[in-house]
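Holo model, zinc ion. Inputs:
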Amino acid sequence: MQEKMSLLRDLQEIDQEISSIETAQKSYQDELAVFAAEVAEVQAMLDQLSAEIDQLRQDEAQIEQELLKKQDNVERVESRLPGIQTQKEYVAVLKEIDIAKKENREMESLLQEKRNEINILVEDQQEKEAALAAINQNAQARGRELNQLLTASGSQLEQQTRNRDSVAADVPKSLLRKYQGLFKRRNGLALAIARNGACLGCNMQLPPQLFNQLLQGNDLQTCPHCNRILYVEAEV
Ligand SMILES: [Zn+2]
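Output:
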């Protein structure tokens, strides 16, 4: 019995080591995923900005064309002035010039508005590009570290899994199954020390008879409260 317990204790130690390696690996992967998500988020904002800027630039080009037409129109109407014969015709042409100039001014202010909108978005775009560059730089540096950690923990995991299999091979199958079930259900603690008549897995008192049997070390004993497999530490 002592020998089996000793194997189980070795096994639990290795299994706990494996769990902590797996937890570490998960945290490395989570951290890498956070970088990827950040990059994707900023990139999506940049794509949208870029599409909006493209649209505004198309609008701007169209307004510029319109403005040229309005300017031509002012010149065309003004060119009629020298040939005017009557006062009535003169007043009519002046009025037409006024309207043409007004339209011209409106078009100019529309163009200015559009250009302001573009400038704001371009500024935003530059800020986001800088942010993306910073994230990428950070992600590359930390990403290299994380990948090294992943590689290192991958080989640790392989090593420990081999150790585990070799120890487990010497444990009787039914005991191994019992141990594995407990290890999962009891959060990585399938075995518990019994000391001063209590189970240190759940801190409950053990029936005295059970504790005595455990001290004799002939049979496998489990805690009636938490079901963990009990063992006593060798007297020092
Ligand atoms: Zn217990």
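Strands lie at 191-195, 198-199, 204-205, 229-231. The pocket of zinc ion is lined by residues 192, 199, 201-202, 204, 223, 225-226, 228 (CB under 6 Å).
Archived with the compound record.
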